[in-house]
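<context>
A single protein, sequence plus fold
<sample>
Here is the protein in question:
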Amino acid sequence: MGKRRLLLECADLRDYAHPRLNGVDLEARGWQPYRWDVTRALKPGKNLLEIEVRAEPPGRGFARPASQAPPAGLLGPVRIVSSE
């Protein structure tokens, strides 16, 4: 059996995320899966989670009006999951 890890998971996030947990910078990502190992950064009790999210400019480089651009940002749940 492997060692249990705790993962921060953002189910629906578009386009770029740079999380920090209790002041610990986690690797910035601009693609799925938006999942980070936070085993060492978590502490008992209250924790402080910050997620910097950046979206591409409207239209994201495609030739279409901004009103037709797909949604961007933190769009779904954020959770801590266990993995072995």
About this structure: Residues 58 and 67 are 8 Å apart (CA to CA). The chain has a mean pLDDT of 86. The longest strand covers residues 5-10. The chain has one domain: 5-55+70-83.
